[in-house]
Design brief:
Largest sheet: 3 strands, antiparallel
Subcellular location: Cell membrane
Membrane topology: Multi-pass membrane protein
Order of helices and strands: EEHHEHHHEEHEHHHHH
Pfam families: 7tm_4
GO molecular function, one term: olfactory receptor activity
Distance between the termini: 58 Å
GO cellular component, one term: plasma membrane
Length: 310
């Protein structure tokens, strides 16, 4: 399939792990364990919130929505990656490639929007506690979650449609382990490829930076309010409700910046693959651990709900 026009190609070839032939079995076992742990951790969080009535608050509603987006994101990417690690056939159908891109972008950006919503929730809880029940009413929370999912879906649709209306020519080898935008843009030909690449980059970076700036603004007000609390115990109690969210935000945007803000230039396949793993496998793996260990109320509820029955 060399040298042809692949705008209607039946398949692409994912070659992301081809540079690690002797490590593929180890990668498979490691990523499988991390994937199962990610699923288990998020399901435990959802089950705990559902069973413990004291956690039926907006913050934990958003945490459940975040867990759902994380489960769906990993399901869109990791099972296919695990299959490729055990198989010699790394081909992926065009429609499957488009579907993977759509769902990974949809759930990935939904995750970012939900983190922003959770930052707003912490801002209202600490800076405007008397108005919290009004501003974070059940209907208002449902709308915030719905808009987060809608925003993620719009970005996923825009990116996928823009990429797959391009003409692909030359090799059909995707230098990644998923249908990655930048890897597919390298296979595209035409006068508008560079313009489209710049446009998609601006859309993704603007969405991520917009969410990040809103979170930073929320925490700027939160810190200013906490510093006005006279007692050290009160300051510690107020800030402790934000620690898990803030840690996940740093982790999420830290790894996202590696992917979207890395300098332009030639990158080895090994580096691209390892950078992709951090965001695809490591970030979802760490999130439920952070929320479970750094959130005191959730940790107590998990022990009460599950460990007490052992």
């Amino acid at each position: 399939m060399q040298g042809g026009n692949f705008s209607s190609a039946a398949e692409f070839i994912l070659i992301g792990f081809s540079t690690f032939p002797h490590l593929q079995l180890m990668f498979f076992l490691l990523f499988l364990l991390m994937y199962l742990f990610t699923l288990l951790g998020n399901l435990l969080i959802m089950a705990t919130v559902w069973r413990e009535h004291s956690l039926h608050t907006p913050m934990y509603l958003f945490l459940c929505a975040l867990s759902i987006s994380e489960i769906l994101y990993t399901f869109a990417v990791i099972p296919r990656m695990l299959a490729d690690l055990l198989s010699t056939d790394h081909s992926i159908a065009l429609r499957a490639c488009a579907s993977q891109m759509f769902f990974s972008f949809t759930f990935g950006f939904t995750h970012s929007f939900l983190l922003t919503v959770m930052g707003y929730d912490r801002y209202v809880a600490i800076c405007h506690p008397l108005r919290y029940n009004v501003l974070m009413s059940p209907r208002g929370c449902a709308c915030l979650v719905a808009w987060s999912w809608a925003g993620g879906s719009v970005i996923g649709l825009v990116v996928t449609v823009a990429i797959f209306q391009l003409t692909f020519c030359g090799s059909n080898d995707i230098h990644h382990f998923v249908c990655h935008v930048q890897a597919l843009l390298k296979l595209a030909c035409g006068e508008n490829v560079s313009i489209l690449a710049m446009g998609l980059g601006l859309v993704c970076i603007a969405a991520l930076l917009g969410c990040c700036l809103l979170i930073l603004l929320s925490y700027a007000f939160i810190v200013a309010t906490i510093l006005k609390i006279p007692s050290a115990e009160g300051r510690h109690k107020a800030f402790s409700t934000c620690v898990s969210h803030l840690t996940v935000v740093i982790e999420h945007y830290g790894f996202a910046s590696v992917i979207y803000l890395k300098p332009k230039g030639p990158q080895s396949l090994e580096i691209d693959t390892l950078m992709g793993i951090t965001y695809t496998v490591l970030t979802p793996f760490l999130s439920p651990i952070i929320f479970s260990l750094r959130n005191k109320d959730l940790k107590i509820a998990m022990k009460k709900t599950f460990l007490s029955k052992l």
